[in-house]
Amino acid sequence: MKKVYIETYGCQMNVADTEVVFSILTAAGYGRTEDIAEADVVMANTCSIRDNAEQRIWGRIDYFGTFRKKRPALVVGILGCMAERLKDALLDSGKVDLVAGPDAYRSLPELLAAVSDGHPQMNVELSREETYGDIRPLRLDRGGVSAFISIMRGCNNVCSYCVVPYTRGAERSRDWKSIVREACDCFAAGYREITLLGQNVDSYLYEDVDFADLLAKVAEVSPLLRVRFSTSHPKDISDKLIETMARYPNVCHQIHLPVQSGNDRIL
Fold this sequence. Notes:
single chain, 2 domains, 33% helix
């Protein structure tokens, strides 16, 4: 069995994505390892929000390359937002075998098989439908009490300073039934706090269920399950959402607003 080692950088969404990636690769027959020295595949799930985050990854790529001396067949892959933004530069460096954007993780088994035949691979196609809602994540912190649940992907706000719409695509919401099912699974597995994740959770809408409705459904899984959410855009926070937060004691009274600027021109 080939073993996969993944380093995760950046936001909580990347942590959730790494859990999805491990689930996909485990189903394809790969094993997970936390020891890079025994890995057959080494990947970094990356962030592009800040330049220093990308510079750090270039350093890690050089570090990954040192393991090829003992394992010439080692596959080095880059996932996530940096893969989407700098796809050509990564492959042209000659140090990376595989590049996969945030919406391309289902294709990883096929990409890895092709790389094994000696051909560098890339899939950075963005999707208007992909939410990975049917995939049960392989939790990285199995002994912990907190878990992340991705409820939507992408963003439509296109703030002038932000790369997210270009690296994660347009906004789309996950089926609320699969979210509630995952929350139930987390509670049954011993998790007592979950964080609902999205680039802008307040704009969640699936069929006729908005974010306030979803928050209520998740809170009703159990009064013993604490519920948080991140991230929020103030223009989409409704009175209905505030009322839902007040109605359920297990919904944490916290709103994460990632303020970047108070200047309309910059925003």
